[in-house]
Write a structure and sequence with these properties.
This protein has helices at residues 2-10, 15-38, 42-46, 58-62, 82-93, 108-116, 129-143, 166-180, 207-210, 213-221, 228-242, 256-263, 270-279, 302-317, 321-324, 328-333, 350-364, 372-389, 399-404, and strands spanning 52-54, 69-75, 97-102, 120-124, 152-157, 160-162, 185-187, 190-191, 197-198, 202-206, 251-252, 337-339. The radius of gyration is 22 Å and the shape is globular. The protein is built from 19 helices and twelve strands. β3, α6 (108-116) and β4 (120-124) form a beta-alpha-beta unit.
Length: 417
């Protein structure tokens, strides 16, 4: 009955009423998460060591505190998929010591794999999602005197599907170039939603950022609630507002600015790009008349072409580019990440997402020998992941569950007329 009432409210013609209801409901979820957190034993709330435990002896055996580059990698998985394993190995190959924090129980097979890469592994009670895992891993570094010796600190999680091969190689070179630069921080994606902020599923900071006393205090004081809204607004967004947005010369790898720069490349055959680029955008991207997307590259007039490219950039900037550019950024800018929830909001169909991912894998691994089996494994696990998460249609009869996961309605671009 409750699901039926919520469904009527969300489908109400009175948009302001349904928006207000969603706001109130999110506040309710945050209050509930606060109550759940406050009911935890005081010792668990105050001591990160009671929230997570080491499950291998690499740290104790090596006694090596002289790390210069560390990646805090947050997982939520009983079994790491092939994509995540390749992702972790990729970071490890760049010279980062990986601290793997799993908000579930790590399997023995996964522990053996991570130990081979000399990762420091923790299993953790899922208190506060991935931001909570970052908090506890950060406090571990600070508590053991490791933080002060670091030059570079990275944050990553398993919410993405990885693209190995040539694309990841380009990405790796960009990371190495950043490390040699004067830039204080590297981010892959940013968003203008709510406030300008950098998205947290991958970033790298230099020590002039993470050794600030205020930054350390942020992590010490952060309350790790099991609430999506709290994690976004009081974690990801607040970090940007307090610290990252105040930095100068930040490296942002994947943006509409870089996309426009790429399209300005004279080597691109725009006529040939027409059909392909249209196919890798969300299927909701449809306009009539002069703004119909299939005509974007149909003109050879440079000024008219630039006008349409700028229009494309404007549309994308009014959306979450981690979703709308899920395949544009890998294809044109060598982004090795595709968010694994891109079908959940209806941005892409299951078939479209799986097919394009396979095509991009084939391109990225074209120079690798015997890559067919790996492509098949990665493609199948990506498709299975998308199916398990569902799409908006999956939650028509259970809108409460959809709201709890952050699904408000199907995907749509804003009207820019």
């Amino acid at each position: 009955m409750f699901n039926f009432i919520i469904r009527l409210i969300l489908r109400s013609r009175f948009r302001k009423f349904s928006t207000f209801f969603i706001f109130i409901y999110n506040q309710f979820l945050t209050i509930r998460a606060n109550i759940e957190y406050n009911l935890l034993p005081t010792k668990i709330k105050k001591d990160y060591r009671l929230r997570m435990k080491s499950i291998n002896l690499n740290y104790l055996i090596n006694k090596n505190l002289d790390y210069k580059k560390i990646c805090l990698f947050a997982s939520y998985s009983n079994k790491l998929n092939q994509s995540t394993k390749l992702y972790i190995k990729f970071i490890n190959d760049l010279g980062y010591k990986i601290i793997h924090v799993n908000n579930l129980i790590t399997s023995k097979v996964d522990l053996d794999y991570l130990s081979e890469l000399d990762c420091i592994c923790f299993d953790r009670k899922n208190i506060g999602r991935d931001i909570g895992a970052f908090k506890d891993a950060f406090l571990f570094l600070e508590d053991h005197g490791i933080l002060n010796n670091l030059n570079i600190l990275s944050f990553a999680n398993d919410s993405v599907q990885f693209i190995p091969g040539e694309i990841s190689n380009h990405f790796g070179q960009k990371i190495l170039d950043f490390e040699k630069s004067e830039s204080p921080a590297l981010f892959t994606h940013s968003s203008q939603e709510f406030f300008h902020h950098y998205q947290s599923f991958f970033c790298i900071l230099k020590n002039q950022v993470f050794l600030q006393e205020k930054y350390i205090q942020f992590w010490k004081k952060y309350k790790p609630l099991n609430d999506r809204t709290h994690s976004i607004h009081n974690g990801e967004i607040l970090l940007s507002r307090l610290f990252y947005n105040k930095l100068h010369n930040v490296t942002l790898l994947f943006s509409t600015k870089e996309l426009v720069k790429n399209f300005d490349n004279e080597n691109i055959s725009f006529e040939n790009e027409n059909t392909f680029l249209h196919s890798i955008l969300p299927f909701a991207f449809r306009r009539q008349g002069d703004t119909n997307f299939p005509t974007l590259f149909s003109t050879k007039d440079k000024h008219a072409l630039n006008s349409k490219i700028y229009w494309l950039a404007e549309i994308l900037e009014h959306s979450n580019t981690a979703n709308t550019c899920a395949f544009i950024f890998p294809y044109y800018l060598s982004c090795p990440f595709i968010k694994n929830n891109i079908c959940f909001s209806g941005s892409f169909s299951f078939a479209q997402a799986a097919h394009i991912y396979t095509k991009i894998l084939q391109q990225s691994l074209s120079k690798e020998q015997d890559s067919e089996k790996l492509i098949e494994i990665l493609s199948n696990e990506f498709y299975d992941s998308l199916i398990k998460q569902g799409n908006p249609f999956s939650y028509i009869s259970r809108p409460v569950e959809g709201l709890n996961k952050g699904l408000v309605s199907g995907f749509k671009y804003p009207d820019l007329v």
